[in-house]
């Protein structure tokens, strides 16, 4: 199997199983555990060894995996690459039961910035974390759940009832985005905890033992390779499972580096600003870097100096030039699907890249024959930011923003070039292998 097909097969597995941030972390943790990485507890004192490989989960939806190279010594730096585990969707509210006649619906809220109309008429499921009653108040039990089948949909309104629908319709997030989950007699719908009972039956637990849940509504569509010559991959959750999978594969590929520490980070909550305890806008990354250094007896200043010498890759997606709307892209920085890794720069620092960081990334691409392209936003069209600027303001190190180009970003289905995942993975392998 060639490298391109191997990258695509691995990515499609992550798309199938990464149906919530919790499941994405679980899937990545399985890969690291299978490769011999030792799991650590966030709250323990760490006794680490040179040559050791470790991973630690943070609140079940973020993950840090790192390799301490055998020659690691005082004041040596970290090489870090980070992606995010979340994606725009709907999240089920804590009291979700809605009804209309014999129809049962779910009360949901939008998470991040999804393109709402792309979620209509799709087969939808739900997955995430459920917290159950434990032996004591401060020891609840958490379990992951995935219905693994379509359980709901958001039906469109027929054109016969809205003749102007093709002129563009604004959807109301409260009224129009409530998924239809079932049908029953009105008396049954009025029973307390209609959805909780469905959830409890799925999990094989008592409804009374469910204390809370954090469930994402996700698109059940399977990935499809398309194009006259199979040039494209259409799939849900490409933002940002493409980067998650590349970070995992890049780190697991190993290294010939003698010193330093190599780290892959999977942050939650990028789509809502990162400013949470397990997001890039917290002190979690510098705190973990300090715990690693302190396990070798290094001082506070040693930890600080090591961090200041480090390098950070923010790995997210970029906007490819649209075939029908090319005027939305920059006039000279043209980024195409299958053109390779996009290196992103923005003077207002929505992307954290600076000149020295770009030089490092471009040098790696040139040396290892990795296709790359430079991305910039059109000057009069705003764009989203990434976790790079946020994380680097806390950890303070050289940072570059990179990723693969997409079309239809934040749609229920996005589109990428089939060759770009292998290019991104190749860059991350080179990043952690170069002396």
Describe the structure.
By secondary structure, the chain is α/β, with parallel strands linked by helices. It has 2 domains: 3-87 and 237-433, Zn peptidases (Aminopeptidase, 3-Layer(aba) Sandwich); 89-219, Aminopeptidase i, Domain 2. It has 10 helices and 20 strands. The strands form 3 sheets. A 9-stranded mixed β-sheet has the order 1-2-3-13-4-14-18-16-17, sandwiched between helices. The longest helix is centred in the N-terminal third of the chain and has 15 residues, at 3-17. The mean pLDDT is 94.
Give the structure's gist in a few sentences.
One of its GO terms (biological process) is proteolysis. With 435 residues, the chain is of the alpha/beta class.
Rg, rounded, reads 23 Å
Low-confidence spans: none
CATH homologous superfamily descriptor of the largest domain: Zn peptidases
CATH topology of the largest domain: Aminopeptidase
Enumerate the strands of the largest sheet in spatial order, edge to edge or round the barrel: 1-2-3-13-4-14-18-16-17
What can be said about the biggest beta sheet? 9 strands, mixed
Domains (count): 2
- CATH C-level name of the largest domain: Alpha Beta
Mean pLDDT: 94
Please report which band the strand proportion falls in: under 5%, 5-15%, 15-25%, 25-35%, 35-45% or over 45%.
Answer: 25-35%
Return the CATH architecture of the largest domain.
Answer: 3-Layer(aba) Sandwich
Number of helices: 10
Estimate percent helicity. Answer: 25-40%
Gap between N and C termini:
29 Å
List how many beta strands DSSP finds: 20
The geometry reads as globular
SSE series: HHEEEEEEEEEHHEEEHEHHEEEHEHEEEH
Q: Report the structural category.
A: alpha/beta
Cofactor: Zn(2+)
EC number: 3.4.11.-
GO molecular function, one term: zinc ion binding
Pfam families: Peptidase_M18 (PF02127)
